[in-house]
């Protein structure tokens, strides 16, 4: 009986310790962008325009090295149809594909660059239309909100049917701070 009591107390202590050391978002509000904001010091942005695509996954990345805040990783659409991914962090925990710059614009006062994943064997220059043809991404560092830090944002389209450069810009311009 005494052994069961000791084991029960030890398990309760372990559960309490896990609850205290787990990020607050583990409780979950049902709002993934708000939940992730609780656990990071960069500003989390949520898209208000998603090109009519449904969210397939929204969460934190587990690919970050120890001591680095997790990145937000969201996927909208499907690989066989239109799709884009949204990655946010500071710093980013991986690299994104390279390509040719086909457009620059300003989003929330920051310079945004649109990259097309053009055919490297082609002799003709890359254009904005190549984003829809071959895929590409938009990269921008958005401003901090309040006491939080700025956020590196990547919006990438690659796979089945790609979004256009203009759609990537529209998604980026529709980003709003979570919470």
Would you kindly provide a written description of the structure presented here, covering whatever features stand out?
The protein has four helices and nine strands. The strands form two sheets. A seven-stranded antiparallel β-sheet has the order 2-3-4-8-7-6-5. Strands 1-9 form a two-stranded antiparallel ribbon. It has 179 residues and is α+β, with helices and mostly antiparallel strands. The protein is globular.
Q: Helix and strand succession? A: HHEEEEEEHEEHE
Mean pLDDT: 86
Helix content: 10-25%
Shape: globular
Percent strand: 25-35%
Spell out the blueprint of helices and strands:
Elements: H1 2-21, H2 32-39, E1 45-47, E2 55-60, E3 72-77, E4 83-89, E5 100-107, E6 110-116, H3 129-134, E7 136-142, E8 151-157, H4 165-173, E9 175-177
Antiparallel strand pairs: 1-9, 2-3, 3-4, 4-8, 5-6, 6-7, 7-8
Concise synopsis of the structure shown:
This protein is of the alpha+beta class and about 180 residues long. The chain has helices at about 1-20, 30-40, 130-135, 165-175, and strands spanning about 45, 55-60, 70-75, 85-90, 100-105, 110-115, 135-140, 150-155, 175. The longest helix has 20 residues, at about 1-20.
Descriptive tags:
single chain; 179 residues; alpha+beta; 7-stranded antiparallel beta sheet; two-stranded antiparallel ribbon; 4 helices; 24% helix; 30% strand; disordered N terminus
């Amino acid at each position: 009986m005494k052994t069961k009591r000791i084991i029960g107390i030890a398990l309760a202590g372990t559960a309490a310790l896990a609850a205290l050391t787990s990020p607050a978002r583990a409780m979950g509000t049902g709002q993934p962008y708000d939940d992730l904001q609780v656990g990071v010091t960069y500003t989390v942005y949520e898209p208000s325009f998603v090109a009519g695509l449904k969210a397939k996954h929204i969460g934190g990345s587990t690919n970050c090295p120890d001591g680095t805040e997790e990145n937000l990783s969201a996927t909208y659409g499907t690989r066989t149809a239109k799709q884009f991914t949204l990655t946010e962090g500071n710093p980013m925990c991986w690299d994104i594909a390279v390509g040719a710059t086909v457009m620059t614009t300003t989003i929330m006062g920051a310079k945004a660059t649109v990259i097309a994943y053009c055919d490297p064997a082609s002799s003709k220059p890359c254009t904005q239309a190549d984003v829809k043809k071959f895929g590409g991404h938009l990269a921008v560092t958005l401003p901090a909100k309040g006491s939080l830090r700025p956020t590196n944002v990547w919006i990438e389209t690659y796979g089945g049917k790609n979004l256009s450069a203009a759609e990537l810009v529209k998604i980026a311009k529709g980003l709003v701070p979570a919470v």
